[in-house]
Amino acid sequence: MVNQIPVPQAKYELLTDVRQPRWKTQVLCLVLVSLVLGILFVTRAWLGIVILRSPRAETVDPETVIDNAKIATWLRRARMYAESTKENQNADRNNSISSPQHFYTNFSGQIIVCYYTIQSDLNTLWELRPSHIDPDLCTHIIVGFASVVNCSLDLDSSSTIYQQVVALKKSQPELRVMISAGGSNELHSGFSEMIKNHFNRKRFIKSVLNVTKTFGFDGLDLDWEFPAWIGADEREKIRFVQLLEELRRELYRAKEKLILSVAVAAPQAIIDQSYMVAEMAKYVDFVNLMSYDYHFYVWYYPITGLNAPLYPHATESGYLSTLNVNFSAHYWLLKGMPKEKLIIGIPTYGHSYKLDNPINHDLYAPANGFGNLGSMGFVPYFTVCEFLQNEAKNVFDEESKVPFAYKDREWISYDDVTSIRHKAEWIRANNFGGAMILSLNVDDWNNTCKFNESFPLTRTVTRILRYHED
């Protein structure tokens, strides 16, 4: 019968035909896939050989090859801080350190250390020149950064600028000017090579004595980021202490009254791995705590965060609750650094993020990259002021005591006059050795913020710690 045509059966037969193995097609696909993978493998191997044979292979760091190589050191530090957070955010660490809130009256010993970078990183189109610096702002100016090359201090081609900064002492005799050794080669051929043995360290110390005498520097700052950190020789932190001991001994022997300081990390994980704190304290005059870059955009932690919070936010727990100035400072005390030798770092720059959704602009909002302002996520304070003048919204976080600002997809964490006043008063309340500014270059030295004064952030610290304003 016509009505009994087995249509379902026809569909079934079609389905079973599709499911039949087509072994010839499968073999051909397998051969093609293998061929493509083989080509990719050979190509990658060939490229690796080419790179290894390149004369620059030993010095190229793919994470710091950027248009403006002079920002590489700042960028690397922020990434290392982020890496320490990634590796330790689930760690069960002691985060119960607290800060006393009573005020002391002994202000006489507190100093204000200001970094001045001679390179063009993070400056405006008009470079901050030594002649623009107010010599009454700081008790110490650290000029950086000299490199460590062939186990010697290398000033590159910037001798004139070093001389101009030292000349500021003519108008302010109490000012102390130091030179900082750091630079973009420190991970590969700088500090690590220099400290390997006594002969290398002796060569470095001899170059330091020669440079400080030639230029009239009052001391040396060591900015090694960081001894014995991930992938490095664990013995580096022992050798670093040996360098400090030998430096101090040779300075005494040469009858040079030179100041010796070290720029040190703030995250707990790096402190534990990189420093023998109590031993370092025997030989340094002070340490400059790099208490900033606590939060920075990285692809594996793509949310907004505060660059330099004074205190933790209520929503933070575990290791995340240690990423703030208060904890870092008191952890250094716990490890054995005397209060009077601990100088608290204050940034004059912020960090930018690109928001996923401009409607979601709070703290911990999803982000997918650096913001458009600044350079590689670093934003000078004068650029922040321009951002606010262009109708960006400003929010002050009362828990962390620092602000952030946003407009459209741009989000910036930074310090302003209010937050820095909180920090300076906190430094005074806890009787630390003083404050460190990073850096004069990215403070508003050209009055972009319309405060009718230059260097408003640094000047706020000076008024509170040096002139004792309430």
TrEMBL record:
GO terms for molecular function: chitin binding; chitinase activity. Keywords: Glycoprotein, Glycosidase, Hydrolase, Membrane, Signal, Transmembrane, Transmembrane helix. It holds the Pfam family Glyco_hydro_18. The chain crosses the membrane at residues 27-47. The keyword Transmembrane helix applies. Residues 110-468 form the GH18 domain. It comes from the Eukaryota. GO terms for cellular component: extracellular region. Coiled coil: none annotated. GO terms for biological process: carbohydrate metabolic process; chitin catabolic process. Belongs to the glycosyl hydrolase 18 family. This is Chitinase-3-like protein 2 isoform X1. The gene is LOC108631743.
